[in-house]
Amino acid sequence: MPELPEVETIKNDLCKTVCGKKIVRVLIHNPKVIRQPAPAVFKKSLEGRSIKRILRRGKLLILELSNGKFLTVHFKMTGQLVLRQSPSAPKKLLAAVAPGKNICRVTFCLSSGMTLDFNDQRLFGELRLIDDWKKLKFIQSLGPEPFDLTFADFKDMLFKRKTEIKPLLLDQTFISGIGNIYAAEILFRAKINPQSSARSLVNKDQLALYKEIQKVLTSAIKHGGSSVDDYVRVSGENGDYARFHQVYGRQGKHCFACAGLIQRIAQGGRGTYFCPRCQPGYLSRLSELEKERKK
DNA sequence: AATGGGACCTGCGCGC
DNA sequence: TGCGCGCAGGTCCCAT
Questions:
Q1: Global pTM?
Q2: Strand order in A60-65's β-sheet?
C-alpha cells in the first residue's frame, strides 16, 4: 500500500530510468484501471508522447508528457510500476501479458526498449490522462504536504480538531501522504496514544509528532519505502524500511523499547498498532499533563 | 463537522 | 482436503 515514501521512491526511480523516454505503445490488459478518458482514447493520446517530468503530490504520482498532458497514477493498495526488459520477439511479449494469473493491467512500451508495467492485483488503482492535474477533485481536497508544513501551522491544525489523532493522520484532507503504516510508526515514536484527541495534545506532544512525521517519512524515503504485502520498487526489488518498523503488524509481540506487548485495535474500521506502555492514554498521563500545563 | 458504514476488489489465512 | 468466511486498506460516497 504505497504511501508517501513509497510513491516518492517510485518517482525517484522513474526519474532516473524513464525521464525523456518516449511511450511507443500502450497495451491495455484490463481497462478497469483506466478511469479517464475512454481506454481507446487513453491509448491513442499516449502513444508517441515522451515523459518530460515526474512529480508527486500526496500519494499520487504524476507524469508530465511532451504534449502538455499528464498521466496520473494512484496505486491505492496493490498498484505497482515495474520496469523490465521488453522481450525481443512480439510473440514472447504477448505470452508475457497473457491473461490468467497475470496482474499486469497496462503495459507501456518505451523507446529505450524497456517496458513499464502497471500491475494491480485488486484493481483499485487508477490511471488518468488529463489536461491539468491541479484541477483533479482529489488534488484540490488534499491537505498540505508534510514537508511543506510549518510547526506553527501544524499546531493550529491540531488544536482545531477533536478527532482521534490516528484517523486524523490518515485523513488526506488534513495532511497528505500518510497511510496506515506510517501513522502507526510515527505515533509510536512520538509516544502518543492513537486514541488521543488531536486537541488534547500539549506542546511537547505536538512538537514530537511534528518532528517524527518529518523524521520517519525522510528515513523511509532514504530506505526506498516499506515492502509489506505488494509494494516493490520500479526495479522489482523490495524497499528496505520495513525492518525499522516498531509496531505495524506486530500485535502480540514484544515492544522493542519496553518489552510490553504490542496491541492491535480497530479505529475507523482500520487496524491500529501501538504499545500501550510507551504510548499511554489520557488517564495514565493526568499528572504529567498537569505539570505540562503549569509550565 | 464528525463519524460510521458500504462499495470497490482479490488473495490469503483461518476455522470447521 | 476443501469450503466459506472475514480480513487487509485508500478513497469515494452516502447516511446520520
A1: 0.92
A2: A34-36, A126-130, A70-74, A60-65, A51-57
